[in-house]
Amino acid sequence: MPHLSRPLADGLCTVARLGLAAVFLVSGALKAVDPAQTRIAVSAYQLLPSGLVGPVATGLPLVELALGTLLLVGAFTRWVALASMLLLLLLMTAVAQSWARGLSIDCGCFGGGGAVAKGSTHYPQELARDIGIMLPALWLLVRPRTVLSVDGWLRADPGARDSDEVNPVAEPGHVNPAGNPAE
Predict the structure, then answer these.
(1) Is 150 part of any domain?
(2) Considering all CA atoms of the chain, what is the largest pairwise distance in Å, rounded to the nearest integer?
(3) Is the whole model's pTM more than 0.90, yes or no?
(4) Calpha distance 95→84 (Å, rounded)
(5) Which end of the chain is more exposed for a tag (fewer CB within 10 A), N or C?
């Protein structure tokens, strides 16, 4: 695999971070503005006891909005990427079980959702889309360094690599791996 220059890699990671943020912000907002429909969508999966449908339908858009906001500002990027992947795996599992059980529902991933006519489901496309959404999260999990991020502003040593956040102690006059002279 070719080695990308740091500015190019940081830029690509920033695009991944902002793209993933947009997905979660749009998805969460579309669910939040129509809580009754979100409740119908959650109920259609037939996975939860009726007493949990409301809390999950209320909490899911809030979680998506929180993840999207944290990604937008670039705070805790690696942890948010991990949480995003876990949420996507959970949602993909729910879609797959619906497909396996022969339920005819729309996933409600971007608002709407609920029962649809037999043969009107799009389970393979929904799962493929979610895998595509998961790829930037996986990349950010491995390489969370992005530009214009809270993480970057808080980083103690901006020259450190993600896998080498703390530079080894160097002797006076020695240049460390980040190219900075030791103090």
Answers:
(1) no
(2) 73
(3) no
(4) 16
(5) N
